[in-house]
Amino acid sequence: MKVKTILVSQPEPKAENSPYQKIVDAEKIKIDFRPFIHVEGVDAKEVRQQKIDLSHYTAVIFTSRNSIDHYFRMAEEMRFKVPDTMRYFCQSEAVAFYLQKYVVYRKRKIYVGKIDFPDLAPLFKKYKEEKFLLPSSDVLKPEVPQTLDALKLNWTRGIFYRTVMSDLSDLRDVYYDILVFFSPAGIESLKKNFPDFEQNNTRIAVFGNTTMEAAKRENLRIDIKAPTPEAPSMTMALHNYIKEVNKLK
Predict the structure, then answer these.
(1) What are phi and psi of 52, to 5 degrees?
(2) Residue 60's domain is classified under what CATH number?
(3) pLDDT (tens digit, 9 = 90+) per residue, 9-29?
(4) Alpha-carbon torsion (243, 245, 248, 249), positive or negative
(5) The domain containing residue 140 runs over which residues?
(6) How remote is the C-alpha of 119 from its chain's centroid?
């Protein structure tokens, strides 16, 4: 069946020339965006209950943009002036680039991984004497604590925000040819909002192995996967699939 409509379970990209827009222009289809999950920050009282004092740490580990936002939000709420000597360890270039929202990049000690969290291991080994804080949500990939523990670092996890399922009840009678997911939480939100969901002709696109496994556990048929050698990004995987099925008569 041809693809005419896609729902991406993330916020709409702010960039005008996003890869999704290029698909819309090239294939004349409709792409909507709707976050299936969102994050809510916890307050300073709850962080204190976790026995976390921001002044006790000499380094911060950031795995996402959310972790950056909520660390600096918490610093403001606790009236903690982040010292210029603080070291920042960022999982990827995209995360490190976002840090510029809060600090003067060239004047700070910023260490950047490649893509996956274990890629930071050589940098952690170089600074093993630091006291690390990991601001995170209540949902954390197992590879993060496994990596830090294996290196025997002095680190503490702080839950600064929570992942919450969005209310999607207004989509109950709306149908899309493809649903796109980027996390297990997105799959969980689909099933929570629509417990009687039947896939039928709806195609499911998943990014990453953990999302794929979550979809399989819910007995969903996976039609599009990324990243792959042929399609390292979700937009590339979608475009390849659409070009193939839409040219079929």
Answers:
(1) -110, 125
(2) 3.40.50.10090
(3) 999 988 778 999 999 999 999
(4) negative
(5) 40-163
(6) 17
Q: How far apart are the first and last CA of the chain?
A: 9
What are the φ and ψ backbone dihedral angles of 33, each rounded to 5 degrees? Answer: -125, 135
Q: Which residue from 166, 152, 133, 156 is spatially nearest to 38, judged by alpha carbons?
A: 166
Q: Hey, what amino acid is at 140?
A: L
Burial 96-107 (b: 16+ CB within 10 A, else e): bebbeebbeeee
Boundary residue ending a domain (138, 163, 188): 163
pTM comes to 0.76
User: What gap in Å lies between CA 71 and CA 38, rounded to an integer?
Assistant: 17
Please write the tens of the pLDDT for every residue from 59-98. 999 999 999 999 999 999 999 999 999 999 999 998 999 9
By the 10 Å C-beta count (0-12 exposed, 13-18 middle, 19+ buried), 136 is classed as: buried
**82 and 107 in contact (C-beta within 8 Å)?**
no
Cβ–Cβ < 8 Å for 75, 54: yes
Final residue before a domain boundary, out of 139, 163, 187: 163
Q: Strands 222-226 and 203-207, how do they pair?
A: parallel
Residue 41 burial class via C-beta count within 10 angstroms: exposed 0-12, middle 13-18, buried 19 and up? middle
Judged by phi (left if over 0) then psi (alpha if -120 to 50, else beta), residue 208 lies in left
The gap from C-alpha 91 to its chain's centroid, in whole angstroms, comes to: 12
